[in-house]
Amino acid sequence: MDFKLSEEQRMIQQMARECVAREILPVMAAHDRERPLPKSVMLDLYAVLKELGLMAPRLPETEGGTGLSYLAYGMIMEELPAELALSVMAHESTVARIHLGANEEQKKRFLPKLIAGEALACTGISEPNVGSDPRSIETRGRQEDGMVVLDGTKLWITNGSISDLIVAVASMGQDAAGRNLITRVVVEREHSPYHASEVDAIGLRQGHLSEVVFENCRVPEGNVLGEAGDAHGALTATWLANRPLVGMMAVGLARRALEACIAYAGVRKQFGRTIGGFQLIQEMLSEIATRVDAARLLCYRALAMLDDGVRSNKEAAMAKWFATENCLAAIGLAMQCHGASGLTREVEIERLYRDARMLTFPDGTTQIQHLIVGQELTGISAFRG
Ligand SMILES: Cc1cc2nc3c(=O)[nH]c(=O)nc-3n(C[C@H](O)[C@H](O)[C@H](O)COP(=O)(O)OP(=O)(O)OC[C@H]3O[C@@H](n4cnc5c(N)ncnc54)[C@H](O)[C@@H]3O)c2cc1C
User: Fold this and answer.
1) Are 127 and 92 members of one domain?
2) Is residue 138 part of a domain?
3) pLDDT band at 101 (very low <50, low <70, confident <90, very high)
4) How many domains, the chain?
């Protein structure tokens, strides 16, 4: 076991940190922090993210993949503002979901623009009535004259409003046992228009969390990926990495809260002393730092296992719930250290808290992660009671 980062990993981390400070934060700060960034700005930022190797890290290098390890990817996630990190993960995991099971013609048709960062992608699984249980998806696809006709509504879709393409997960009928045939259908907005609007949520407000509506949306049959009913496997394969990656986004938010807290504790005075000298403030700083480090280590472990080709289902789920919940708690403590000023929009902590609050849901809620860990430990599924 080696807890040291390699020279290459340190370089990637440093490069990401500098790139974010130089090319990303100033752009985001120049726009309203409470409103979704315009698509043109997102495309400019994607040009920067492309340089970091984030457009197709999961594809083989022979097919446009960028050769980034999962661990290095996670390190970059820690450095990026969470809105952008979640956006690019949604984009590139959609690339991976297309690549998994697409035929050569489909790969040529859909992937180049996405890998170039010239078009934006998203995946639509969740719906108003369907969240943790994607097998019960209500969006329907029916075959008609060589086309698939989609009807249904997707909700909480990262990138939905700015997307050029969505992998819509739809039911294409039922199997003999009456189970939904959950299937991936690529919908290109230019040819098969869909309606998308922003959802107003507590955090990640410069990002794009959307509702996407398909109404009699006609898509060529040639856009169906893989076999009818095989979507679950492709989704599970990508969730495995997404979980610790979302964990690393939370680590990034909590680390920034810790840095702000240390700085504040060094200057704020009460009872004639800087508050950083009070034991109870140091206890809070210690707890924040420990939660951040523990979260980061669990995420690193899950990502390193994936790099070693291990299907780290339990470790990925542990990393996701622990990192998101503990980083949220850590930022809550950082707010406490700031006194009442921590509650205001004058300091960054309040926004970090709202952003972290969003991360206990995507790619499986905390409760779903616990059920995965429990199933791995006992061999018993508690999903359906
Ligand atoms: C920031 C963000 C980005 C997202 N991006 C996307 C995206 O790009 N694409 C997409 O398709 N979706 C996306 N989602 C949706 C996300 O996947 C869902 O929010 C998540 O799957 C949970 O679904 P739900 O919110 O409907 O909650 P529900 O599934 O309705 O759950 C409600 C509550 O019940 C709990 N619960 C559910 N089932 C069980 C059970 N068996 N046992 C115990 N407790 C249970 C849950 O943990 C939760 O606390 C995103 C969500 C957020 C917040």
Assistant:
1) no
2) yes
3) confident
4) 3
